[in-house]
Amino acid sequence: MAMRYPQGVDVAAAVAAGFVLDRCEAVPALIGKPDDFLIVTGLAGTARDIAALTHDSAQIYTMAGAMGGAVMIGLGLALARPDKRVLVATGDGEILMNVGALATVAVMNPANLSILVVDNGHYGETGWQKSHTSLGVDLEKIAIGSGIQRTRTVSTEAELAGGARLLREGNGTAFVVLRVAPAEPPAYKRNFDPAACRNRFRGALLGI
How far apart are CA 191 and CA 178, in angstroms? Predict the structure, then answer.
Protein backbone atom coordinates (compact mmCIF):
# COMPACT_ATOMS: atom_id res chain seq x y z
CA MET A 1 0.00 0.00 0.00
CA ALA A 2 1.36 3.41 -0.98
CA MET A 3 2.08 5.95 1.73
CA ARG A 4 -0.61 8.60 2.22
CA TYR A 5 0.88 12.09 2.51
CA PRO A 6 -1.25 14.80 4.17
CA GLN A 7 -2.11 17.86 2.13
CA GLY A 8 0.52 20.58 2.37
CA VAL A 9 3.47 18.38 3.34
CA ASP A 10 6.61 19.12 1.32
CA VAL A 11 7.44 15.55 0.37
CA ALA A 12 10.55 16.46 -1.64
CA ALA A 13 12.05 18.36 1.30
CA ALA A 14 11.29 15.47 3.65
CA VAL A 15 12.99 12.98 1.34
CA ALA A 16 16.02 15.25 0.95
CA ALA A 17 16.30 15.43 4.75
CA GLY A 18 16.21 11.64 5.09
CA PHE A 19 12.61 11.13 6.24
CA VAL A 20 11.78 8.30 3.82
CA LEU A 21 10.87 5.05 5.60
CA ASP A 22 7.26 3.87 5.66
CA ARG A 23 6.21 3.84 9.33
CA CYS A 24 3.59 1.16 8.64
CA GLU A 25 6.42 -1.21 7.72
CA ALA A 26 9.35 0.11 9.77
CA VAL A 27 7.67 0.22 13.20
CA PRO A 28 6.62 -3.47 13.10
CA ALA A 29 10.06 -4.43 11.78
CA LEU A 30 11.78 -2.71 14.70
CA ILE A 31 9.49 -3.98 17.44
CA GLY A 32 9.15 -7.55 16.21
CA LYS A 33 6.97 -9.58 18.58
CA PRO A 34 5.06 -6.93 20.56
CA ASP A 35 3.93 -9.44 23.21
CA ASP A 36 7.47 -9.33 24.62
CA PHE A 37 6.89 -5.78 25.92
CA LEU A 38 4.65 -3.69 28.10
CA ILE A 39 4.16 -0.70 25.79
CA VAL A 40 3.36 2.93 26.59
CA THR A 41 2.80 5.23 23.63
CA GLY A 42 2.71 8.91 22.96
CA LEU A 43 -0.39 10.38 21.40
CA ALA A 44 -1.49 10.53 17.76
CA GLY A 45 0.65 8.63 15.25
CA THR A 46 2.54 6.25 17.52
CA ALA A 47 -0.64 5.39 19.43
CA ARG A 48 -2.15 4.27 16.15
CA ASP A 49 1.05 2.48 15.10
CA ILE A 50 1.02 0.37 18.25
CA ALA A 51 -2.74 -0.14 18.46
CA ALA A 52 -2.73 -1.45 14.88
CA LEU A 53 0.32 -3.66 15.51
CA THR A 54 -1.16 -5.24 18.65
CA HIS A 55 -4.87 -5.05 17.74
CA ASP A 56 -5.26 -2.71 20.74
CA SER A 57 -4.27 -5.44 23.17
CA ALA A 58 -4.10 -5.37 26.95
CA GLN A 59 -0.32 -4.87 27.17
CA ILE A 60 -0.43 -1.39 25.61
CA TYR A 61 -1.34 1.94 27.16
CA THR A 62 -1.91 4.60 24.53
CA MET A 63 -1.94 8.29 25.41
CA ALA A 64 -4.40 10.92 24.19
CA GLY A 65 -3.92 14.60 24.91
CA ALA A 66 -1.29 14.21 27.65
CA MET A 67 1.62 15.35 25.49
CA GLY A 68 5.07 14.83 27.00
CA GLY A 69 4.22 12.15 29.55
CA ALA A 70 5.02 8.88 27.82
CA VAL A 71 8.71 8.58 28.74
CA MET A 72 8.19 9.22 32.45
CA ILE A 73 5.30 6.75 32.64
CA GLY A 74 7.52 4.18 30.95
CA LEU A 75 10.35 4.91 33.35
CA GLY A 76 8.06 4.40 36.34
CA LEU A 77 6.85 1.08 34.95
CA ALA A 78 10.37 -0.12 34.25
CA LEU A 79 11.50 0.70 37.80
CA ALA A 80 8.40 -0.85 39.37
CA ARG A 81 8.60 -4.07 37.34
CA PRO A 82 12.24 -4.91 36.57
CA ASP A 83 11.05 -8.36 35.48
CA LYS A 84 9.15 -6.86 32.52
CA ARG A 85 10.57 -5.38 29.33
CA VAL A 86 9.05 -1.89 28.89
CA LEU A 87 8.90 -0.08 25.56
CA VAL A 88 7.98 3.59 25.16
CA ALA A 89 6.92 4.32 21.58
CA THR A 90 6.48 8.02 20.97
CA GLY A 91 6.90 10.73 18.36
CA ASP A 92 9.31 13.60 17.85
CA GLY A 93 6.76 16.23 18.88
CA GLU A 94 5.77 14.37 22.05
CA ILE A 95 9.34 13.87 23.24
CA LEU A 96 10.31 17.47 22.41
CA MET A 97 7.60 18.52 24.87
CA ASN A 98 9.59 16.96 27.73
CA VAL A 99 13.21 16.35 26.71
CA GLY A 100 14.24 16.79 30.34
CA ALA A 101 12.79 13.35 30.99
CA LEU A 102 15.75 11.86 29.14
CA ALA A 103 18.15 13.17 31.79
CA THR A 104 16.16 11.41 34.52
CA VAL A 105 16.07 8.22 32.45
CA ALA A 106 19.85 8.38 32.02
CA VAL A 107 20.45 8.80 35.75
CA MET A 108 18.17 5.87 36.66
CA ASN A 109 19.22 3.81 33.60
CA PRO A 110 16.90 0.81 34.00
CA ALA A 111 18.13 -2.10 31.91
CA ASN A 112 14.58 -3.13 30.97
CA LEU A 113 13.54 0.18 29.37
CA SER A 114 13.64 0.95 25.65
CA ILE A 115 12.52 4.19 24.01
CA LEU A 116 11.52 4.29 20.35
CA VAL A 117 10.98 7.73 18.84
CA VAL A 118 9.13 7.65 15.52
CA ASP A 119 10.43 10.88 14.01
CA ASN A 120 8.64 12.20 10.93
CA GLY A 121 9.84 15.78 11.31
CA HIS A 122 6.29 17.10 11.67
CA TYR A 123 3.57 17.80 14.22
CA GLY A 124 0.96 15.47 12.80
CA GLU A 125 -1.61 16.12 15.52
CA THR A 126 -1.89 19.87 14.97
CA GLY A 127 -1.74 20.36 11.21
CA TRP A 128 1.50 18.82 9.93
CA GLN A 129 3.71 21.81 10.60
CA LYS A 130 7.44 21.07 10.45
CA SER A 131 8.81 20.07 13.83
CA HIS A 132 12.21 20.98 15.26
CA THR A 133 13.74 17.79 13.85
CA SER A 134 13.03 19.02 10.31
CA LEU A 135 14.93 22.18 11.24
CA GLY A 136 18.16 20.63 12.48
CA VAL A 137 17.42 19.28 15.98
CA ASP A 138 18.99 15.83 16.50
CA LEU A 139 17.12 13.77 19.10
CA GLU A 140 19.83 11.13 19.36
CA LYS A 141 22.40 13.80 20.23
CA ILE A 142 20.03 15.13 22.90
CA ALA A 143 19.76 11.62 24.36
CA ILE A 144 23.55 11.21 24.31
CA GLY A 145 24.02 14.62 25.93
CA SER A 146 21.51 13.62 28.60
CA GLY A 147 23.68 10.63 29.46
CA ILE A 148 21.92 7.74 27.71
CA GLN A 149 24.72 5.51 26.47
CA ARG A 150 22.94 3.05 24.15
CA THR A 151 21.50 5.05 21.24
CA ARG A 152 20.93 4.73 17.53
CA THR A 153 19.26 6.55 14.64
CA VAL A 154 17.61 4.36 12.01
CA SER A 155 16.84 5.99 8.68
CA THR A 156 17.32 3.18 6.12
CA GLU A 157 16.00 -0.36 5.73
CA ALA A 158 19.52 -1.72 6.21
CA GLU A 159 19.63 -0.21 9.72
CA LEU A 160 16.36 -1.75 10.93
CA ALA A 161 17.86 -5.02 12.16
CA GLY A 162 20.45 -3.24 14.30
CA GLY A 163 17.79 -0.97 15.78
CA ALA A 164 15.59 -3.96 16.58
CA ARG A 165 18.42 -5.67 18.44
CA LEU A 166 19.15 -2.56 20.48
CA LEU A 167 15.53 -2.30 21.64
CA ARG A 168 15.75 -5.81 23.10
CA GLU A 169 19.22 -5.83 24.63
CA GLY A 170 19.86 -5.30 28.34
CA ASN A 171 22.70 -3.51 30.14
CA GLY A 172 21.03 -0.10 30.26
CA THR A 173 18.26 1.91 28.68
CA ALA A 174 18.09 1.87 24.87
CA PHE A 175 17.09 4.91 22.80
CA VAL A 176 16.29 4.49 19.09
CA VAL A 177 15.19 7.25 16.72
CA LEU A 178 13.32 5.93 13.68
CA ARG A 179 13.18 8.52 10.92
CA VAL A 180 10.07 8.00 8.79
CA ALA A 181 8.28 9.82 6.01
CA PRO A 182 5.67 12.42 7.05
CA ALA A 183 2.83 10.16 5.91
CA GLU A 184 -0.32 9.05 7.68
CA PRO A 185 -0.04 6.33 10.36
CA PRO A 186 -2.23 3.21 10.16
CA ALA A 187 -5.95 3.95 9.97
CA TYR A 188 -6.85 2.17 13.20
CA LYS A 189 -9.56 3.19 15.65
CA ARG A 190 -8.34 2.49 19.19
CA ASN A 191 -10.26 2.31 22.45
CA PHE A 192 -10.66 5.79 23.99
CA ASP A 193 -12.33 4.63 27.23
CA PRO A 194 -9.69 5.62 29.83
CA ALA A 195 -11.06 3.46 32.64
CA ALA A 196 -11.27 0.36 30.47
CA CYS A 197 -7.76 0.91 29.07
CA ARG A 198 -6.33 1.45 32.55
CA ASN A 199 -7.94 -1.69 33.95
CA ARG A 200 -6.88 -3.96 31.13
CA PHE A 201 -3.31 -2.61 31.22
CA ARG A 202 -3.19 -3.13 35.00
CA GLY A 203 -4.17 -6.75 34.41
CA ALA A 204 -1.31 -7.19 31.93
CA LEU A 205 1.12 -5.47 34.28
CA LEU A 206 0.20 -7.64 37.25
CA GLY A 207 -0.36 -10.82 35.29
CA ILE A 208 -3.99 -11.21 36.34
Answer: 25
